[in-house]
Design a protein that fits this description.
142 residues; alpha/beta; Rossmann fold; five-stranded parallel β-sheet; three-stranded antiparallel β-sheet; 6 helices; 8 strands; globular; binds magnesium ion
Amino acid sequence: MEKSNYGIATQKLLTENEEGKIMARILVCDDAAFMRMTLIKILHGAGHEVVGEAGNGLEAIKKYQELHPDIVLMDITMPELDGIGATQAIRAIDPNAGIIIVSAMGHQDKVFSAIQAGAKDFIVKPFEPDRIVACIKKYFGE
Ligand SMILES: [Mg+2]
């Protein structure tokens, strides 16, 4: 598999899949197993690689350090540490971290806090699968 450098957009080395589309390594963080499953199915369908899952903010930080994903899909409401705290911590570790918030409707104020904490974008639950795929494409400047 050939590797291409999309350095201008992301400063990261990304892999292309067989169709020449960007394949991102993604960490999925949500306390609801069903939501993680839904996201993973969508990501796999779009040719991305899910490198890990986290069920709370502390796990998200730990897995980020272990796995160095291209993108983190981050829920806000989670036990132990919420997605805003986890976003702040991950951005402190890696200022270039690509974190996309995936959060339920009615948490607009929290979404704003998350963007302030360094999240790149947000997706409101419930979402159409295309919204997830488009948001990732947008992040990579496709
Ligand atoms: Mg949650």
